[in-house]
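Trying the structure run again after the queue cleared.
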Amino acid sequence: MYVIVRQCGEAPEFLPSSPAGRFKGKDPSVTRQRLEAEWVAGAEVVYIGKASGGASGRRGLRKRLNEFRRFGEGEQIGHWGGRLIWQLEESDSLLACWKETDEEPARVESEMIQQFVADFGRRPFANLRN
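Done. Tokens:
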């Protein structure tokens, strides 16, 4: 499991367009209005993600976080989840925190998002589903 954390209590600044990759030709950019609507004031966690071994057992956390980083740098990588993060002006100062678990990653991710919703009334900023 991993979370992306923003340690700044001030209101965020948003980029007009995303520098992230155009996976399958789709632009990951959203409007400023959408970014403002998704923002969760007072929350440090901006994204909750999961990593699993995949069918071969070789994917794991390191590969998933590497894909996330590379997508944010503009590569055409399949990490569409969390894409709003890359429109944060200070995306380069966010922290990635993780914890290994023996439990099913999808279930743990869902539970973590549910707990966030219980605490803040909505999903984390860049979690657009679950």
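The mean pLDDT is 91. Worth checking whether this holds up in the mutant runs.
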